[in-house]
């Protein structure tokens, strides 16, 4: 695209918000934060919003729907961790503490929109509609990805860090070329922002002016490595400037702020405003995975501080205090969460049983002559074992 | 690479070949590069999900002009430049293929595909498998490769082994003008990702082929087409030279000299390294009892190693001598003035043939 | 998928590590991981230009705890964490080696070295050559590799072929506890860049070795040391199993079963894939007349292909049967519950041995 | 480094200039430009300088020295292009039009400092002291790099784009660990900023707080691809913000501005101010290399516009008008440039004659058994050819 077009667009978006183009790209001076840790609504002055960065509250119906997903997400995280401890699941990178981010990333999207999650984003994947057992296939060790990515418009959970951001860009680009109005949310962690593919993805999205929202869950650690060893930037949201896109930071344990920000981001992107970078400040409350020992690199006191900022309790208090969450709704939500947890427990008790012949069926559209020979060798071995 | 070469192609019937030859005689010779360019244009025409992108492939037409005129003809949404980032190019292509496009991307030179290695090895190759077949990635990664053109460092690597070793990728490399056309069309239509290696030194080579006729032939035989067949580039009886891409012409040259000296060598052009055509290779070696495998890449853990290993596994009792290899040395590709010492030459191939224990 | 599975995705528990340390002190069996850890510590002590860095290698001690305690003992200028970027890690190491340091870097898992592929193939491998020997790059790239631990996708690749095919790199892979120590010391002291492959599944394997004694042995034999020697892991007479790294123990297991059945197999541990020890391998195969080459990686264009090709080139007239290969299938590394079908097993090796035409 | 330390440092540097930390990172609002195209000095108001971005003029002696290098650089560029046309040199990526950048990049450094050039930076390499014929070895096709990189502290000219920026970071890091006061200038083009390694290099330099100056010659094209297809950022200098480092843009055809900026950058870096990003606006006046045809992608009129901004003429006018450049000096400089050109012509007339055995000698410290076999094979062939 010519530089005129680009500048016009930025100028237009910034006019819309009554701010300078550079101010449009720079995140608001303070992180956007609507709810206090105790669940009370912050005064307008304290919200971090400023001209060009205004964020109205979502509707009560939206909030209840999001809260339900939040409660289910927490329950699934904790159920899975229990299943891992019991040896019934191989590994689980829990997003305990980050569920508000998970829920907002999925709920801001419409049906035709795509989600690009990482290994940590099971709850987002579920929230977008994938059946819990399908989500957990890979963590169970059965197969690499257990759901139909095209049906759900959810990419496989990515392990090689930030590689998936480029795929998100490609999906958005293909949609744009066909004139489809698809928005894509592409997720990664704070550590992942250091990878080269992060840079290439943001740059491609900006140059091709694509509706991709890069959503960084800054949970302060990449396994053991703290943010300060990862970046010297004023904030990760400031990285947007270098690509000519807008960045924003938000309290990642404040579901209301997240919904407001992601909602606006999706709207702007769908209207042709180009890509955006959102940094959510949150915390990985548990170890990296069950295989990690977080006591080696952080203090209990630090973790405790974040317990006080828990996203679930915060939302619950807000809804209760504002009269949106009656006992009946609350019970229905709990029951739903228990039901999902039971599905997982029951599913994990079933023996997985994948036909080894499957190994050769999905390498190419048709097995090559070589693969047929190899499949025959294995089949012969298995037959002899049986005999 | 003459009319004979394309006529021997197993897919062309005798009459068709003759007719083609007659018609081609009336035409100007076509370059390998033009055949690729036409294949891209025909694919863009045939399938609107095909998109072409990469560095300098738009207005410039690529540094080798293989995409010349495509942006002008098809518009800059079908053929366009990207920012200068190979991982970005491949990664974006993955996403576009996920979303039902057929990207055909160009890596400017062999060694400049390396920044994209993670995307290729961890995603392009594995996506279909990861998703149990639900997310195929039909896409083509075009890579100009190999030496023989006096290129400077990082511009002459033969990197096919890296990709051939990576399950999930198909690896094609044409050595004739008509294969340049046909194989690129095949690669683009393949439901699997194909790494398409173009021998740089052949870009300007010419042959009498009628591209329109080839296009018709391709369209009509498409369904029946058996992908992954090797080609007997020259039939012979005394020993088999197995090779591909840039070395096919060198092997043919060696066979010609050998013929003058009374040795009748068969030359096999592998064409598709993956999938590999064991049948054609084994049949030839069982017949001749001797084989030399030739490849421009450094020999250690190379495609030539694989072919050598396969031949002795499958034809052991037909072999009169060990299978020998003639490959590039195990050194970084040399500077231009020295490359002639590195590249397999007809003489070096003939030396190897001489060692195939003819006395025994 | 219980204890082993969790091990792959991270970490040995603190107790296990402590226990291991305590045992070693009392001259109890030493783990492979501890031998590596001690080699790093001894190298840091012996040579102040040695620096260690990578992802999580500092306070955490690496996800496999191979760098455990080094930051505490040597300070965070000798062993430190970097931002999460593998090309950055390798590229920075290149610069540090250019400026007279000896970087020893860790790639967290095999597939996560791929983002650094350009730095490795175009610079680490070529810098000495590009500069006519004026800019050597003594550095070690440690890569935990291969399967057998129930690891998830992208955590179990056997990627040695990519590096072995790249001239300018040395490629080491130890299979015993004492080699873990000795070969890592050798790699660090090598004036050439070494890609050092550590079989993950061996990290917790144990052997009765006295690390202090090994250290003394290393120091005293250092000058005389002939790098690049294969090891006869088990002498035998009837056929030769050639392998390396994670497959050595499997080959030994096969040999043990074969012995019970009356066949005396020789097992060769290649140790250094580059440089390759043709002498030891050829001598063995000439003696036994039969060979099976075993490797965990997918077999196509693999190190096993190379070894197979070399053996038949060099020992053709001693061979009673073709050289056979037992390798991983040509598929992306499978999910944990399926890997047992993919990995070469003692049974599969014995099946291959059975096919070595014993009747003939 | 802990985030406190980093913030302290930024705070300190910005205090020094009386600006906010964010303003320290953001480039000055306008490109720094001290000389008009006609060689006249711009008024202070027009220079683009502002608080925190002040640039005093270099001394007359420095200017004359730089001018000499500029004239020599131009002469070498044009001599090489002629040699290529005559078929006496294989390929040459000329920096014609960018010589002011080349000269400033080399002259700002002291003896112990390192330079990391690209294929386009022959003139910078020469200016740092490498003998012209040694610089051209690779373009002649004789060997990959013709000079002693350690003696000159000049890395091999890099072809794989931006890979060398990471090497620069490593050299600086090694020096810092040893307590040496080495500054490193790492060069790349506008197109190269899109590569992942650019991102990783800037981030590593910022996180480890290393004295590396990233010097981007924005010559508006990456082969045929214009800047607008490369980046949507307000400027390439703005990319600094995302790493927490300072960025600045400068007129890259204004040698005086370049010297002022690079001089200050080296000083700040040496004093521990951390890395910096400098974007020089210049223009590639000729084709990418002799193999390129720039008529395919740009208008003659655009090139003509830049002829008027030529860095050599501009500097000459300034020096002549301000009485710094007498006839004697001017003649001495011309004679020097001719002498260098003659060295190149004479050198290129000599047959290059590299022993093929050299091919095997520099792969490893010692040739492996395999390489010895291969060397013997070649030696045997050559002997038979001779016979
Ligand atoms: C390319 C690559 N390198 C290394 C890894 C190993 N690894 C897995 S998760 C992780 C840390 C990621 O941190 P962050 O991006 O902050 O995400 P978080 O785990 O905190 O959600 C690392 C190093 C990987 N998966 N991919
Ligand atoms: C990794 C990599 N990809 C592609 C190339 C091929 N290539 C050489 S120069 C060039 C354009 C570079 O443009 P820029 O960075 O603006 O520098 P300039 O040539 O304008 O000085 C390209 C694409 C390369 N050398 N390295
Ligand atoms: Mg994190
Ligand atoms: Mg440029």
Kindly describe this structure.
The complex is a heterotetramer, with 2 copies of chain A (387 residues) and 2 copies of chain B (360 residues). Chain A is an alpha/beta fold and 387 residues long. Chain A folds into 2 domains: 3-354, Rossmann fold (3-Layer(aba) Sandwich); 355-387. Chain A has helices spanning 3-16, 21-25, 60-85, 99-107, 122-127, 132-135, 137-140, 149-152, 163-177, 196-207, 255-270, 300-307, 311-321, 327-349, 358-361, 369-386, and strands spanning 114-116, 184-189, 212-218, 221-222, 225-226, 246-251, 276-281. A 5-stranded parallel β-sheet of chain A has the order 1-2-3-7-6, sandwiched between helices. In chain A, strand 4 and strand 5 form a beta hairpin. In chain A, helix 4 (99-107) runs parallel beside helix 11. Chain A is globular, with a radius of gyration of 22 Å. Chain A starts with a helix and ends with a helix. The model of chain A has no long low-confidence stretch (mean pLDDT 93). Chain B is α/β, with parallel strands linked by helices. Chain B is 40% helix and 17% strand. Chain B has helices at residues 3-8, 14-26, 32-46, 70-74, 86-98, 117-124, 127-130, 160-164, 177-189, 211-221, 248-260, 278-288, 303-315, 339-342, 346-354; strands spanning 30-31, 50-54, 79-81, 102-106, 140-145, 170-172, 194-199, 206-207, 231-234, 239-243, 265-269, 272-274, 291-298, 324-328. In chain B, strand 13, helix 13 (303-315) and strand 14 form a beta-alpha-beta unit. In chain B, helix 12 packs across helix 13. The longest helix of chain B has 15 residues, at 32-46. Chain B is globular, with a radius of gyration of 20 Å. The two termini of chain B are 34 Å apart. Bound molecules: thiamine diphosphate (2 copies) and magnesium ion (2 copies).
Q: Percent helix among the residues of chain A?
A: 40-55%
Number of domains of chain B: 2
What is the count of structural domains of chain A?
Answer: 2
Mean pLDDT of chain A: 93
Keywords:
heterotetramer, A: Rossmann fold, 2 domains, five-stranded parallel sheet, 7 strands, 8% strand, B: Rossmann fold, Rossmann fold, five-stranded mixed sheet, 14 strands, disordered N terminus, binds magnesium ion
């Amino acid at each position: 695209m010519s530089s005129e077009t680009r500048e016009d667009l930025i100028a237009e978006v910034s006019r819309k918000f009554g701010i300078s183009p550079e101010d449009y790209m720079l995140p608001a001076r303070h992180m956007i934060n609507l709810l206090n840790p105790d669940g009370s609504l912050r005064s307008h002055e304290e919200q971090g919003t400023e001209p060009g960065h205004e964020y109205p509250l979502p509707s009560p119906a939206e909030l209840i729907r999001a809260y339900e997903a939040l409660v289910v997400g927490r329950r699934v995280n904790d159920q899975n961790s229990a299943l891992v401890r019991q040896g019934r699941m191989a590994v689980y990178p829990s997003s305990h503490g980050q569920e508000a981010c998970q829920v907002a990333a999925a709920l801001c999207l419409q049906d035709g929109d795509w989600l690009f999650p990482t290994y940590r984003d099971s709850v987002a994947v579920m929230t977008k509609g994938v059946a819990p057992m399908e989500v957990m296939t890979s963590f169970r060790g059965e197969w690499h990805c257990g759901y139909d990515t095209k049906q759900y418009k959810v990419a496989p959970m990515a392990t090689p860090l930030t590689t998936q951001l480029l795929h998100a860009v490609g999906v958005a680009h293909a949609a744009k070329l066909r004139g489809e109005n698809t928005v894509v949310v592409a997720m990664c962690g704070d550590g992942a922002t250091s990878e080269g593919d992060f840079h290439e993805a943001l740059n491609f999205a900006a140059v091709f002016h694509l509706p991709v929202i890069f959503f960084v869950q800054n949970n302060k650690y990449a396994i053991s490595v703290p943010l300060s060893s990862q970046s010297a930037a004023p904030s990760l949201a400031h990285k947007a400037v270098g690509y000519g896109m807008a960045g924003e930071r938000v309290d990642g344990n404040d579901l209301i702020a997240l919904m407001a920000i992601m909602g606006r981001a999706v709207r702007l992107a769908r209207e042709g405003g180009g890509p955006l970078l959102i940094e959510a400040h949150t915390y990985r409350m548990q170890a990296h995975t069950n295989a990690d020992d977080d006591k080696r690199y952080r203090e209990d006191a630090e973790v405790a501080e974040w317990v006080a900022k828990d996203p679930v309790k915060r939302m619950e208090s807000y809804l209760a205090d504002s009269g949106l969450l009656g006992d009946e709704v609350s019970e229905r939500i709990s029951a739903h969460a228990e039901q999902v947890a039971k599905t997982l427990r029951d599913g994990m008790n079933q023996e997985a049983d994948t036909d080894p012949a499957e190994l050769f069926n999905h390498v190419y559209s048709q097995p090559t002559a070589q693969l047929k020979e190899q499949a025959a060798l294995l089949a012969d071995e298995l037959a002899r074992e049986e005999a | 690479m003459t009319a004979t070469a394309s006529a021997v192609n197993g897919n062309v019937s005798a009459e068709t070949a003759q007719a083609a030859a007659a018609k081609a005689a009336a035409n100007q010779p076509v370059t390998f590069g033009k055949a690729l360019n036409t294949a891209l244009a025909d694919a863009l025409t045939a399938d609107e999900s095909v998109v072409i992108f990469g560095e300098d492939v738009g207005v410039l037409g690529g540094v080798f002009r293989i995409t010349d005129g495509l942006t002008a003809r098809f518009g800059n949404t079908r053929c366009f430049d990207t920012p200068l980032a190979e991982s970005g190019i491949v990664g974006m292509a993955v996403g576009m293929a996920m979303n039902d496009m057929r990207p055909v991307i160009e890596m400017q030179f062999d060694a400049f595909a390396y920044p994209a290695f993670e995307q290729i090895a961890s995603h392009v190759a594995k996506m279909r498998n990861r998703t149990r077949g639900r997310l195929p990635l039909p896409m083509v990664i075009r890579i100009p490769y190999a030496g023989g053109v006096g290129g400077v460092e990082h511009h002459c690597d033969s990197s096919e082994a890296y990709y051939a070793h990576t399950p999930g990728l198909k690896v094609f490399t044409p050595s004739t003008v008509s294969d340049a056309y046909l194989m690129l069309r095949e690669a683009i239509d393949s439901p699997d990702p194909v790494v398409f290696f173009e021998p740089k030194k052949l870009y300007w080579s010419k042959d009498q082929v009628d591209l329109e006729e080839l296009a018709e032939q391709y369209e009509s035989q498409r369904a029946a087409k058996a992908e992954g067949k090797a080609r007997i580039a020259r039939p012979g009886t005394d020993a088999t030279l197995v090779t591909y891409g840039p070395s096919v012409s060198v092997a043919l040259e060696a066979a010609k000299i050998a013929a003058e000296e009374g040795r009748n060598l068969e030359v096999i052009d592998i064409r598709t390294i993956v999938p590999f055509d064991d049948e054609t290779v084994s049949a030839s070696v069982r017949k001749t009892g001797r084989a030399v495998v030739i490849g421009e890449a450094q020999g250690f853990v190379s495609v030539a190693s694989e072919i050598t290993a396969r031949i002795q596994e499958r034809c052991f009792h037909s072999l009169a001598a060990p299978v020998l290899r003639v490959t590039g040395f195990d050194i970084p590709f040399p500077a231009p003035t020295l490359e002639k010492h590195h590249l397999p030459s007809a003489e070096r191939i003939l030396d190897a043939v001489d060692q195939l224990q003819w006395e025994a």
